[in-house]
Design goal:
This protein is of the alpha/beta class. Helices cover about 40% and strands about 15% of the residues. It has a 5-stranded parallel β-sheet, with helices on both faces. The longest helix has 26 residues.
């Protein structure tokens, strides 16, 4: 009996080892994410992240789990950039994203300048106070950028956004409901980050499990960008969040609202905004918060007219749609570098 049990154990271990090798070679790598109590999830330090469905690059994140080089210990001037996947920019080489390009454009003027990419996919404006509250004590800085763009206005009306108001109806709080604890991740967490087999099975089994557990859950549709019925409410929520970010910073630290709009690319180098009402709301929220507003739309439109190259999209997905490509990042970098140059001039002795 003992001999049979030992043989079964050896075979089982062998199958697990073989399965892990096969999974790593042909299916997937172990999960690069770890649970985050406030934001749902975060990248592990030094994680390897590959995005082959749009763009097609492989990146290694830094010690903070950011798509950035190592943080400069004693920078001559530092700026933090908050944003979603358009800032994180996993679709292009790091040297091609607008955060890195803007930094390189200004290195000659300000050696030692450091622009920190705090972007993370799936975040939106309601997450940024949490991100800033973590990053500021660790990094500090001389300026902060809040990036907004396609869909950010709609996201402020999601069901997981919570608000509080005073008796007069004025907003006193805007936040998001932290994601519920994932029991499956909590159970398999210790091996999820090490095993490709478990990672692969979790990704395949979890949707089925959730569907069986919640067969009658109705997902409320989000209004499309061109049919935003509660635009004033979304703008008010964004204004409150921007004011909250402003209040969390020292008075001398400028806070910029950077708008990266979505565009429609037409024939003859003509590009138009696909959601102009979003930019109007972002501009209004920035003005009501007393903040600088920078519209990257003109730079993107000019670049397309001059080069004929759309700033969005990739050949392996759809040109003109999706995230910024290298041309789009270059255009945004030029606009952002110009604003930074003005800030450096103002702070010069």
């Amino acid at each position: 009996m003992r001999s049979t049990a030992a043989r079964v154990a050896v075979v089982a271990v062998g199958c697990l080892v073989l399965g892990e090798v096969v999974a790593r070679l042909w299916l997937t790598a172990p999960s690069a994410q770890e649970p985050d109590d406030a934001l749902g999830w975060a990248w592990r330090p030094h994680a390897h992240v590959a995005t082959y469905t749009e763009g097609g690059v492989s990146l290694t994140l830094n010690a903070l789990g950011l798509n950035d080089d190592a943080v400069v210990e004693t920078p001559s001037w530092r700026m933090l950039v908050l944003g979603n996947s358009f800032v994180e920019a996993l679709q292009v080489r790091r040297a091609d994203n607008f955060v890195e390009r803007a930094q390189q454009l200004l290195q000659e003027r300000k050696p030692g300048l450091d622009i920190v990419n705090l972007g993370r996919s799936a975040m939106h404006a309601a997450h940024y106070p949490v991100v800033l509250s973590r990053a500021w004590p660790l990094l500090g800085g001389d300026a902060v950028v809040v990036t907004v763009g396609e869909g950010d206005l709609v996201n402020l009306l999601r069901a997981d956004i919570v608000t509080e108001r005073d008796p007069s109806g004025a907003l006193t709080h805007v936040g998001f409901l932290p994601e519920a604890k994932d029991r499956m991740k909590a159970l398999f967490g210790p091996i999820l980050s090490r095993s490709s087999v478990v990672t692969y099975l979790m990704r395949r089994v979890k949707p089925v499990f959730e569907g069986l557990a919640n067969p009658f859950v109705k997902v409320e549709p989000v209004p499309p960008p061109d049919d935003l019925r509660d635009g004033p409410e979304a703008t008010a929520r964004l204004t409150w969040l921007l004011r909250s970010l402003r209040a969390a910073l020292p008075p001398q630290v400028p806070l910029l609202v950077l708008d990266i709009p979505s565009l429609r690319y037409g024939l003859g180098g003509i590009a138009t905004r696909s959601a102009p009402h979003e930019s109007a709301a972002y501009r209004t929220a920035a003005a009501q918060s007393g903040l600088d507003y920078l519209d990257a739309g003109p730079a993107l439109i000019f670049t397309y007219g001059a080069t004929g190259q759309p700033g969005h999209g990739f050949p392996n997905l759809t040109i003109g749609h999706g995230h910024l490509n290298a041309h789009g990042h270059a255009a945004v970098a030029m606009a952002l570098a110009s604003w930074i140059d003005d800030q450096l001039a103002r702070s010069a002795p």
